[in-house]
Amino acid sequence: IEQEKHIAILHAETEELRKYNKIMVEKLNIALKAISNIQHIVLDEIHPVHIIPIPKLNMLDAIDSLEDGTE
Question: Which of 6, 42, 55, 67 is the S-S candidate for 63 at Cβ 3.0 to 4.6 Å?
Fold first, then answer.
């Protein structure tokens, strides 16, 4: 019974961390999109070759795709 309680606690903590992780990834993706937009505003007309593709994070914190949709 003690082990079952411990497992339940760990499960609850894991779920909380997953929710937190999802929120943080969403916030990071918003920040990355903002950086990309600023980069395009500043560099599009002057130096378009200097535009660096900005990655988008997936829910596992791995790079999922670039801003232009490529992986």
Answer: 55
